[in-house]
Amino acid sequence: MSTPHVVRALRFFETHADAITEEQIRICSIPASPFGEQERAEYLSRKFSQLGLSEVEIDEEGNCLGLLRGSSRAPLLVVSAHLDTVFPKDTDFEVTRRANKLFAPGIADDGCGLVALLAIAQTIQAERIPLEGSILFVGTVGEEGEGNLRGVRHLFTKGRWAKHVDAFLSFDGPGVDRITNRALGSRRYRVEVSGPGGHSWGDFGLPNPVHAAGRAIARLAAYPAPKEPRTTFNVGRIEGGRSVNAIPSEASMEVDLRSTAEAELQRLDAFFRRVVRDAVDEENAKRRVGDALLKLKVDLIGERPTGETAADSPLVELAIEATKVLGVEPRLDQSSTDSNLPISLGIPAITLGAGGTSGCSHSLDEWYDPSGRDLGLKRGLLVILGIVGHG
Ligand SMILES: [Zn+2]
Question: What does the pLDDT average to over 93-120?
Fold first, then answer.
């Protein structure tokens, strides 16, 4: 922090605060629904090129990449934020402004992370900070929900940089104290039960898919989930049937299972699969002789690994020190973010807040207040320079 170009770089975030907010508004006004991130990725890649990053590309999965090359390729640090939001295609992404607050779906999650990538790259370039290692800036696709970390998964398994990344830092949402070093694991399922269907009176006795689903939900709801390690389950969607006086021919549900401990997640997962099978078997056992059986289909639609970057690892220690040096008390945290994937591969990874404050995340009323954002950006820059090294 005493190096003159670092001092200037840190000040940059204060003097350019308004321009950073204007850029965030431009990014967030470009729609980015799950599997619909392309336009936003193209915009970000144009910005990467304008900032003088090299090897700018949009990869096969849709991630947007740009390299800020130091005197050597290694260590290579990925600095990322996610392009996608949880909102569907027809959402109005237009940003509105009231007093200090910006309103738009995804304005904070992860609009403030995306603009952090640009602000940090711009600062390093403007102050000509000589880097030892290199930084690969990445806007990832598919971080939210059904995206199932597809962007970061591609980056670390099939992408051309997959074998070369030494550490990973993701900016996700606001705040200056949070250091997410533990990955919250989850499994998500879609369950479909189908059967012959028929008349509620005339065909009474036929196996009923909705009844089977109801039995399964009742049993799952009774699962004694431990508070510690925190373990949760949720039947988030159910569907089925067409009419009050028809035995339905299908029922479906979507289920989210989570735990901070892999062993607990596996226990809950095994329990869930068993009760679904038992529920269908019970419903089938009640049927009249000769009636068709219910069929069960259980699809894993999401899987996020559990794990952690040790609190005493250099990356986490650096983040703790960078937070303290700015006068903020750091808080280690567990969450489900793009960092889950590198953590599961043994690559040091953390997720940081990108500064500012927000509320109503994942709702149409989502807001972001950029006041004090510079602290989050300063912290991010200090961690980045600490990892890649600077002359
Ligand atoms: Zn996010």
Answer: 96
